[in-house]
Design a protein that fits this description.
This protein is 68% helix and 2% strand. By secondary structure, the chain is mostly helical. Strand 3 and strand 4 form a beta hairpin. Helix 2 packs antiparallel against helix 3, helix 6 runs antiparallel to helix 7 and helix 7 packs antiparallel against helix 8. The N terminus and C terminus are likely disordered. InterPro entries: TPR-like_helical_dom_sf (IPR011990).
Length: 588
């Protein structure tokens, strides 16, 4: 058995590398969620860097390209160095510097040949070498060098698994370049190659689990869907399944990811129906009981897309079946039951019901709400939304009927305030005023968010002032009310309420929401000031969120021609690569 370090592909630098002015060693790898957030930040900064390069600045573009090449060559990691060179090559070609672009492509290819000729110490080292070549061949295809990429795969990659991985990524690049038929042929070859690999790439231990073949098959299924090969995509998805670590602390949902990838490319009810015929049999592998989480993930997304396309009956049928999954115990994996699975199932049902309500599918929304009988608080949240939407369609009697069915007294009042809000929106002010007057004796601090929405600001603040503690419930009221102020672009009272929150984890969502809204309104200096106020917080969730905020601020400063302020915003970004990319683009 070959044990691989990770079942996920390596993380690479973004296009913004063409503007780097100084290379720094990358930080230690972060958890998967944080890595994804960092990439999101870097992606937005990529666009920013290109804007800066195209702007009339004292720094000639040629000098930036040369400096980018210098830094790319200094990157010690093979895949990152070659990706940087190919990124610059693509950018040079975009500005018609074809000859220089080709030089970098040849340099990247030479690095690949050097990599394959390096001596290997063991099987693990050889496996990493093959994976590096698979990655760089895909990058060559993305740079428009499809023939060279395929030549590299054919002559230098001996592993069937890595060959399949490379062919899959090359096929995606080819499809995006408009050659769907060649992409289909490459994907068929990729499937055959991965199937032909006889190594065992699965592992399971107390700390982790994985299956490299399944990870690649999951990607291939998504790619097949991209080129309208749904039958083959589903066949691939049906042959894989997820895994759980021995301790239950980690899981990989390969079959769900395959189906979710397929669903991301489907656009018709007929395609979704075909996918449901396959997915309803999950898992289909012999002697595998399957993790219900994979079915929950897949079935919920299927129902969600069917609602978008208008097939409500099938969506309801799937949702009804989905509601039973969290009640089924899998004896081989009892560690996740009942809390995790039940909570996940209830959350999905609530999301579906809320979506139906917002789309004014009231009867369907009420049917799904009935499936939440074991979660009355979630039922009440959905009924509040249904009542408000019914009022928006001027069905006041039905709206009141639904509101009166809310089990919790406080939430019942809030539901009726939602009716008041929607009556105001559709011009039925007399009915709105009459209903509100009847609710005044029942108002509590929990009603504050709805009171803000209907223009009763002072009354809301007076009620909140009566809060006598710092309980979690009171904190939630403050957060909801503050965010309601943000929605109305009333930032001062939102800030005042945020100061009453006792923990940074509660305060940050409000401050980030304020700053994001300020960016939309063009209040960049204020947003920058708020972002800087978050600098000293040690809360673990904040850095990537703050980086994304700073990236958007810098981006908007560039759009308005304020390059120095854009540089200042960029300097505050905590992730080194993203910060250096933007600052270097502003270098004079």
């Amino acid at each position: 058995m070959t044990i691989l370090a990770s079942s996920k592909p390596a993380i690479h630098f973004p296009i913004a590398l063409l503007l780097l002015f100084e290379f720094k060693q990358p930080a230690q790898a972060a958890p998967a969620v944080q890595v994804t957030q960092t990439l999101t930040t870097s992606g937005s900064l990529t666009e920013l860097g290109i804007q800066i390069a195209e702007s009339p600045t004292p720094k000639p573009a040629e000098a930036l390209f040369e400096r980018a090449i210098q830094i790319a060559e200094a990157i010690p990691t093979f895949t990152e160095r070659t990706q940087a060179l190919l990124t610059i090559a693509r950018r040079l070609r975009e500005v018609n510097q074809v000859s220089r672009s080709q030089q970098l492509i040849e340099r990247a290819i030479q690095l690949s040949l050097d990599r394959v000729s390096e001596p290997v110490k063991d099987d693990y080292d050889k496996a990493r070498q093959q994976e590096d070549l698979a990655i760089i061949s895909a990058q060559l295809a993305e740079a428009g060098q499809v023939d060279r990429a395929l030549q590299l795969v054919k002559t230098r990659i001996s592993s069937n698994l890595r060959k399949g991985q490379a062919l899959n990524k090359i096929a995606v690049a080819v499809a995006h370049q408009g050659n769907a038929q060649q992409a289909r042929e490459l994907l068929s070859e990729a499937v055959r190659s991965v199937k032909g690999d006889t190594e065992d790439y699965a592992y399971e231990s107390n700390g982790s689990c994985g299956n490299e073949k399944f990870a690649i098959f999951s990607d291939i299924a998504k790619s097949l869907s991209l080129v309208s090969e749904l039958d083959q995509a589903l066949q691939v998805a049906e042959t894989i399944w997820g895994c759980n670590s021995a301790s239950g602390d980690a899981a990989q949902y390969y079959q769900a990811w395959a189906y979710l990838g397929i669903l991301s490319h489907l656009e018709t009810v007929e395609q979704l129906q075909q996918t449901w015929n396959s997915a309803k049999q999950m898992p289909q592998a012999p002697n595998v009981s399957g993790d219900p989480v994979e079915r929950l993930m897949t079935w919920h997304e299927l129902a969600d897309k069917l609602i978008d396309l208008g097939d409500i009956p099938l969506a309801l049928s799937i949702t009804t079946q989905l509601s039973t999954l969290s009640k089924v115990k899998d004896g081989t994996r009892t560690y996740i039951y009942p809390e995790f699975l039940v909570e996940m199932g209830q959350k999905d049902l609530q999301k579906t019901a809320l979506k139906l309500a917002k789309k004014r599918q009231f009867e369907a929304a009420l049917q799904v709400t009935q499936l939440l009988a074991d979660a009355p608080s979630r039922q009440d949240i959905v009924r509040k939304e249904i009542a408000g939407q019914l009022a928006h369609t001027k069905q006041l009697d039905k709206a009141m009927q639904v509101a009166n069915s809310v089990s919790d007294t406080t939430m019942r009042t809030r539901s009726k305030l939602a009716i008041v809000e929607n009556l105001q929106k559709v011009g039925l002010t007399a009915q709105a005023d009459t209903l509100f007057e009847s609710l005044i004796p029942m108002l509590t601090p929990e009603s504050a968010p709805e009171l803000i929405a209907i223009g009763q600001r002072d009354r809301a603040l007076n009620l909140i002032a009566k809060l006598d503690g710092q309980s979690d419930a009171h904190q939630r009221i403050l957060i909801e009310t503050a965010l309601q102020f943000v929605n109305l672009n009333q930032f001062k009272p939102a800030l005042e309420l945020s100061s009453k929150l006792k923990e940074n984890g509660n305060r940050h969502p409000v401050l980030l929401a304020i700053a994001a809204q300020q960016v939309k309104l063009g209040q960049l200096d204020q947003a920058m000031e708020l972002a800087l106020s978050l600098k000293n917080s040690s809360h673990w969730e904040l850095p990537p969120q703050r980086d994304r905020l700073l990236a958007s601020i810098a981006n908007e400063f560039v759009r308005s021609g304020q390059f120095e302020k854009a540089r200042q915003a960029a300097e505050e970004i905590s992730e080194d690569l993203a910060r250096v990319a933007v600052i270097s683009g502003l270098a004079k």
